Amino acid sequence: MSEPVSELAFKARELDAGDELAGVRSRFVLDDVVYLDGNSLGALPAGVPERVDDVVRRQWGELRIRSWEESGWWTAPERIGDRIAPLVGAAAGQVVVGDSTSVNVLKALVGAVRLARLDGSVRDEIVADATTFPTDGYIAESAARLTGCTLRPVAPERVPQVLGGRTAAVLLNHVDYRSGRLHDLPALTDAVHAVGAVVVWDLCHSAGALPVGLDEHGVDLAVGCTYKYLNGGPGSPAYLYVRREIQDRFDSPLPGWNSHAEPFGMRPDYEPAAGALRGRVGTPDILSMLALEAALDVWDGVSIEAVRAKSLALTDFFVQCVAARVPQGRLELVTPVAHRERGSQIALRCEDAGEVMKRLIERGVVGDFRHPDVLRFGFTPLYVGFGDVERAARVLGEVLAEPRRT
Amino acid sequence: MSEPVSELAFKARELDAGDELAGVRSRFVLDDVVYLDGNSLGALPAGVPERVDDVVRRQWGELRIRSWEESGWWTAPERIGDRIAPLVGAAAGQVVVGDSTSVNVLKALVGAVRLARLDGSVRDEIVADATTFPTDGYIAESAARLTGCTLRPVAPERVPQVLGGRTAAVLLNHVDYRSGRLHDLPALTDAVHAVGAVVVWDLCHSAGALPVGLDEHGVDLAVGCTYKYLNGGPGSPAYLYVRREIQDRFDSPLPGWNSHAEPFGMRPDYEPAAGALRGRVGTPDILSMLALEAALDVWDGVSIEAVRAKSLALTDFFVQCVAARVPQGRLELVTPVAHRERGSQIALRCEDAGEVMKRLIERGVVGDFRHPDVLRFGFTPLYVGFGDVERAARVLGEVLAEPRRT
């Protein structure tokens, strides 16, 4: 076993030496654990603790209420939205940060159905990815109920076949949370538009890991979380993208005072603000939001194209190392091999995945287990190196060579 | 002018000496400003900065994903809900923390309409306080639209007259945000129940300032923010109360994965959890939420009855000092004089309120201005003393005695 080990370790060193993003790792707080769970909770960016401390002690503790203006609290949702925008291929003024992904899915889907019906057409179907992260499906069901639609869950590859004149809105995931499969955003967006429906993309598992191209591909609405590849911290606020051309018609089911044209006019009648901030609702959670803002500093000078190139190299290398280290027949690769179909994670089916993941974590390799039989490894190119990948695969091979605990 | 000044200052000293809550002030970070804006953003509790730093550096930075279990992140919404519960007169297991007040108003109101219709009755009206903080009205309008109801805005005192067989749900404020008027929660709740409708109370301006008695008075649903008298920090998460008896029928328009009976089962079908956590939606914003948890430590050993007694004494004394210091005819008291109709703030109508508040703030007395002509002063009994009150009224008298800037 010594020969292939040293060869792969040598290759890892070569790849790390040629990695233009290697230096970005120092912008994070990391230890000797191989952290392959950044697709669940991103690591802590080094600048966050100090910034949060300033927000708490000075902005809240000393300036108190004055900070809504003086510390830029009030405008944080759209300001931070504009920081996320280039990472998802959006021009400024189309993204606002706030609320959870689930809440944003409701805004987007109800808004999408209303948009689709503006021409007077009787559209009564919401199509949603049947393999989606469950919350999207539950909220889609709720959006359907609230708008008099029927929810039609279908596998993403079958979506084009079920679209038609009854389709109001379509909710899709850019990358499947379990398999790591990357869906064809441009083609699916075109297919939805071809029948006059409105598309909502969930970017939770793609934003910060690969180019999305929202503007370029004419996406209508998109949502995403910020605590995975954007490293915003546990439960950091999600975001909502509303394409500029449809903003003045976007009709939110959550018309809170923060999206009013004149929020401090305290008017009894609701008049929606112009632009992206029509997606805001209530008072933003400033601590979480400004932690996210500080976290986004790690992107300075980093291109999403470079991130994507490294992500593919990392996952390719992981697949190669696993093949070399793991006894045959013990694992099944769930994530597609083709680059155009792969996100930034590798999912491996393994009968005793729960137990295997426990042992990996005990030995300093952190991925996660997805019920019932999936080992999921996320690769954040900003702080994961090829040496990490080689080590992870090596430890995985060791664990799988051991007798199974019963 | 010297005689009355010294008399009131002397009385303030006496009142401060007899104040059983005087020691609680040291649990906050305060300076020499008289901070009468705690009804907008509560002051910083002294224990918060260290706790937040631990959450960021250790829980997120070192434990990372493990903290969802090991640091109790996952159960924070219901755990912190149970900390708030006694402050609003609720037994454990009925309050969850999360999302903004606006989002919780939507959950509560749509849920209320669905509850009211469970017996098959055709109820199609939502009654809402016409003088409410605007966001409640906007969301009520949205809830009406989403459930096929009509929104009927009426002054709170007229609510009993408009209730009837068509009433599905009623949204009321316990304390009016502008006038500081305290509404009769027990009587109005009874009136709503008498017609078979469901009541939703907004406690933003009462929770932490006076006893609410949710359980005692049979309230169905309630929402509130935590950044006013609960001092949770800017935009800290709101909460939702669902009375135990109706929890198994509470049907939320935001059925996110966090309210699923088996959230990690990743099941495509939604099965709501039992109990209060049915009000949860998506991943909770941990930083803001755990800051709130730390902030609630200031309540250790403090009874809400003692807070109420001091609040009334503070506002009584403020009214007395203002009457002694301010030229007659310059101000009009908006807040009711009767204790049973008064929250924990004093609102004064003043033609040039915007300019007056600016000058007050320049001189270290912070209240706020509510469009178009209201000076609003909030009294947080945990950290405001009678000396503060005397000083605030004295400075107000000085400002109002000056020539008006034009």
Q: Poorly predicted ranges of chain A (pLDDT <50, ≥5 residues)?
A: none
Protein chains sharing the most extensive interface: A-B, 79 and 79 residues
End-to-end Cα distance of chain A = 27 Å
- Give the second-level CATH assignment, the architecture of the largest domain in chain A: 3-Layer(aba) Sandwich
**Main sheet of chain A?**
7 strands, mixed
Radius of gyration from the alpha-carbon trace of chain A, in angstroms = 22 Å
- CATH level 1 class label of the largest domain in chain A: Alpha Beta
Q: Structural class, from secondary structure content of chain A?
A: alpha/beta
Specify the CATH homologous superfamily of the largest domain in chain A: Type I PLP-dependent aspartate aminotransferase-like (Major domain)
Sheet with the most strands: spatial strand order of chain A:
4-10-9-8-7-5-6
Number of strands of chain A: 15
Subunit structure (chains A, B): Homodimer.
GO molecular function, one term (chains A, B): pyridoxal phosphate binding
Enzyme class (chains A, B): hydrolase
Function (chains A, B): Catalyzes the cleavage of L-kynurenine (L-Kyn) and L-3-hydroxykynurenine (L-3OHKyn) into anthranilic acid (AA) and 3-hydroxyanthranilic acid (3-OHAA), respectively.
Task: Describe the protein's architecture and organization.
Chains A, B: It catalyses: 3-hydroxy-L-kynurenine + H2O = 3-hydroxyanthranilate + L-alanine + H(+); L-kynurenine + H2O = anthranilate + L-alanine + H(+). Chains A, B: Homodimer. Chains A, B: It holds the Pfam family KYNU_C. Chains A, B: Its EC number is 3.7.1.3. 2 copies of one chain form a homodimer. Chain A has 406 residues and is α/β, with parallel strands linked by helices. The first copy, chain A, has helices spanning 2-17, 48-60, 67-70, 76-84, 101-116, 134-147, 159-162, 185-194, 286-295, 304-325, 353-362, 386-401, and strands at 28-29, 34-35, 44-45, 95-97, 125-129, 150-154, 167-173, 198-202, 221-224, 239-242, 332-333, 345-349, 365-366, 368-370, 374-378. Chain A folds into 2 domains: 2-30 and 301-401, Aspartate Aminotransferase, domain 1, CATH 3.90.1150.10; 50-299, Aspartate Aminotransferase, domain 2 (3-Layer(aba) Sandwich). The first copy, chain A, contains 12 helices and 15 strands. A 7-stranded mixed β-sheet of chain A has the order 4-10-9-8-7-5-6, sandwiched between helices. In chain A, strands 11-12-15-14 form a 4-stranded antiparallel β-sheet. In chain A, β14 (368-370) and β15 form a beta hairpin. In chain A, α5 (101-116) runs parallel beside α6 (134-147). The two termini of chain A are 27 Å apart. At the A-B interface, α2, α5, α6 and α9 of A face α2, α5, α6 and α9 of B.
